[in-house]
Amino acid sequence: MGVVEEAHNVKVIGSGKTTVVLGHGFGTDQSVWKHLVPYLIDDYRVVLYDNMGSGPTNPDYFDFERYATLEGYAYDLLAILEELRIDSCIYLGHSLSSMTGVIASIFRPDLFSKLILLSASPR
């Protein structure tokens, strides 16, 4: 496991050819997907991660300046995709992570085949 994977508590489950990345909303962690994941793992490779400052992430990695904007979270998402060598994914983001996915897809549109946004926060 790489540094980024460890820092964000990354879990990869399922065995499908298509990768689905699930990003949780502000104030939650990846456990919010526990009822959805069983429906996906037979057909998709599912990537779960925690945004910095959520769940069991290491507080030593939190940087107030970096995470004062959504770009910091987007750079984390791109680092996770890079470390896992994901060259295309369906990204499902809730709240804060919806906009994280939008920004990341602007920086690297080649990595995202679809964006699914749930209750996307405008900021």
UniProtKB/TrEMBL annotation:
Q: Which InterPro entries match?
A: AB_hydrolase_1, AB_hydrolase_fold
Q: Which Gene3D superfamilies match?
A: alpha/beta hydrolase (3.40.50.1820)
Name the family.
Answer: Belongs to the AB hydrolase superfamily.
Q: Domain AB hydrolase-1: where?
A: 19-120
Give the superkingdom in one word.
Answer: Eukaryota
Q: What is this protein called?
A: AB hydrolase-1 domain-containing protein
Q: Tell me which species this is from.
A: Solanum pinnatisectum (tansyleaf nightshade)
**Gene Ontology MF term list:** hydrolase activity
